């Protein structure tokens, strides 16, 4: 459900108002039923949908018109203040994530889709993680993992994410780059791409210009690409970061390996997030975030809690729709599509 004080509950309600979702999957919301009740009211859906509280997954109806909510009862609705950071909301958001991981690891559910949490609220509640990715890695015992952002045919995986830029540069090492190339390859295979074409971005401007602007490309990135080739993985680079994403969007590559957080996030959000100055609102907030390397499927919306929109009922559910679609089409870990 995401942070109860954010837009997660509202966009969840709006997405589940579409009967087509139930034709493609069996959705179950892990969160607080009382918060979802209010989300129905905020989005004008109280007369259309009903909340069905459950304690175990086997109690779910999976029928349009009812939203099955695995009720954690962590929120006092009288004290919830939308759009504000709080320990109560931070604790709840963290506990929802921990629960879906437990359900997925126990194979009670096939995939997990996460709405946004607020990192400040979560840390105030005593859970010192940088974000969803690190929570999933911790509770699944995963050591090698990466974040993938996707919007239509543009896909990006990251060598590092939630660290300082200085530390990100220090993390560009052959073994880590090779690990992420392997992860990118497996992700494409999981999505049904039989012979993935991987573009590997350089770290420095112009991909180092043969060592003039830095030697990471020569000493770390190129050796990783060469090692991947020996494993039968088609990867090209290091490529100038200012052109590789345009090539990928045009179909040159199936996926891009980015060296750090913003290198990959900025191009993805330029194509996925469209703001209308005339309307004074976002026309489109699309794209998804997938954690790769886990023993379970995890897909997330590609935006934050949007506290400025919480409680208005106006937030777009497009990214959540995209996330659910991605989760549905991904093969279970260890299995690959061959068509």
List keywords for this structure.
339 residues, alpha/beta, Isopropylmalate Dehydrogenase, 2 domains, eight-stranded mixed sheet, three-stranded parallel sheet, 12 helices, elongated
Task: Explain what you see.
It is a single chain. This protein has 339 residues and is of the alpha/beta class. It has 12 helices and 13 strands. The protein has helices at residues 8-16, 19-24, 33-42, 87-105, 119-124, 132-140, 165-170, 174-190, 216-230, 241-249, 261-272, 318-329; strands at residues 29-31, 50-54, 66-71, 112-114, 146-151, 154-158, 198-201, 235-239, 255-258, 273-276, 281-285, 288-292, 298-301. Strand 7 (198-201), helix 9 (216-230) and strand 8 (235-239) form a beta-alpha-beta unit. The longest helix has 19 residues, at 87-105. The chain is elongated, with a radius of gyration of 20 Å.
Concise account of the structure shown:
With 339 residues, the chain is of the alpha/beta class. The chain has helices spanning 8-16, 19-24, 33-42, 87-105, 119-124, 132-140, 165-170, 174-190, 216-230, 241-249, 261-272, 318-329, and strands spanning 29-31, 50-54, 66-71, 112-114, 146-151, 154-158, 198-201, 235-239, 255-258, 273-276, 281-285, 288-292, 298-301. The chain has 2 domains: 1-142 and 294-333, 3-Layer(aba) Sandwich (Isopropylmalate Dehydrogenase), CATH 3.40.718; 144-293, Isopropylmalate Dehydrogenase.
Protein structure class: alpha/beta
Shape: elongated
Q: Largest beta sheet, briefly?
A: 8 strands, mixed
What is the name of the CATH architecture of the largest domain?
A: 3-Layer(aba) Sandwich
Strand content: 15-25%
Strand and helix order: HHEHEEHEHHEEHHEHEHEHEEEEH
Cα distance spanning the termini: 34 Å
Radius of gyration: 20 Å
Distinct helical segment count: 12
Strand order of the largest sheet: 4-13-12-5-6-9-7-8
Strand element count: 13
| CATH topology type of the largest domain | Isopropylmalate Dehydrogenase
Number of structural domains:
2
Q: Which percent range fits the helix content? A: 25-40%
């Amino acid at each position: 459900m995401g942070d109860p004080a954010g837009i997660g509950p509202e966009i969840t309600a709006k997405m589940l108002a579409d009967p087509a979702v139930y034709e493609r999957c069996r959705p179950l919301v892990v969160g607080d039923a009382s918060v979802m009740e209010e989300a129905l009211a905020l989005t004008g859906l109280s007369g259309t949908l009903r909340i069905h509280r459950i304690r175990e997954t086997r109690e779910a109806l999976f029928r349009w018109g009812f939203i099955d909510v695995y009720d954690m009862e962590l929120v006092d609705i009288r004290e919830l203040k939308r759009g504000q950071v709080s320990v109560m909301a931070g604790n709840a958001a963290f506990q929802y994530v921990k629960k879906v991981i437990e359900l997925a690891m126990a194979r009670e559910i096939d995939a997990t889709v996460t709405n946004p949490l607020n990192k400040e609220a979560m840390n105030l509640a005593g859970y010192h993680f940088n974000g969803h990715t690190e929570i999933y890695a911790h509770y699944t015992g995963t050591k090698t993992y990466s974040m993938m952002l996707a919007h239509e045919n543009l896909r990006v995986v990251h060598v590092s994410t939630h660290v300082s830029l200085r530390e990100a540069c220090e993390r560009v090492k052959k073994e880590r780059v090779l690990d992420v190339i392997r992860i990118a390859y497996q992700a494409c295979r999981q999505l049904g791409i039989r012979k993935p074409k991987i573009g590997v971005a350089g770290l420095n401007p112009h991909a180092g210009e043969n060592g003039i602007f830095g030697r990471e490309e020569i000493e770390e990135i190129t050796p990783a690409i060469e090692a991947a080739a020996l494993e039968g993985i088609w990867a090209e680079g290091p490529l100038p970061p200012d052109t590789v994403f345009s090539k990928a969007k045009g179909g040159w590559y199936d996926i891009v390996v980015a060296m750090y957080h913003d290198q990959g996030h900025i191009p993805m959000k330029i194509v996925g997030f469209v703001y209308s100055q005339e309307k004074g609102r976002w026309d489109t907030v699309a794209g998804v975030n997938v954690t790769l390397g886990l023993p379970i499927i995890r897909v997330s919306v590609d935006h934050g809690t949007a506290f400025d929109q919480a409680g208005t009922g106006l937030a777009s559910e497009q990214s959540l729709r995209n996330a659910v679609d991605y989760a549905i089409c991904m093969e279970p870990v260890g299995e690959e599509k061959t068509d």
